[in-house]
Each structure stands twice: as structure tokens, then as C-alpha cells.
Specification:
With 70 residues, the chain is mainly alpha-helical. The chain contains two helices and no strands. The chain has one domain.
């Protein structure tokens, strides 16, 4: 497997995880403005989030996104 195909495979696997971050980054680059709004949230108790691991994955994905966007 070449590095390029390996990267494409990883990108396809992680795209759903980082889609919102990518979309927001592209919109900001295009000049969009954002406003944060509070939400009411409650923990349903059946979350599949692994706090430490998922935080590291998100940080790595955001770092890759920032590097690619320059």
C-alpha cells in the first residue's frame, strides 16, 4: 500500500468524525461569521465516547486539518 492510498483510506475513515470541524474551518476561511448559542444537554448514559482517546483523536485531526489548510 502506498503512502498516498494509506492517507486516502485514513481520510475516508475519519471524515465523518471531523466533518463539522472541516466545514467550520472552510466557512471561516471563506469569511463566514459565527455566533455561539447555548444548548440544553443531558447525558443519555449510553455514550460510546472514550474521553482520553477520543480527545487525542480529535486533537490529532484538528492538527492535520490546520496543517493542510496552511
Amino acid at each position: 500500500m502506498t503512502a498516498r492510498s494509506r492517507t486516502a483510506k485514513v481520510d475516508r475513515a475519519t471524515l465523518p468524525l471531523f466533518y463539522v470541524s472541516l466545514l467550520l474551518a472552510l466557512l471561516k476561511r471563506a469569511g463566514a461569521r459565527f455566533r455561539e448559542e447555548p444548548i440544553d444537554w443531558s447525558d443519555p448514559g449510553d455514550s460510546k465516547v472514550v474521553p482520553g482517546l477520543d480527545a487525542l483523536r480529535m486533537a490529532a485531526g484538528l492538527w492535520r486539518l490546520r496543517r493542510r489548510m496552511g
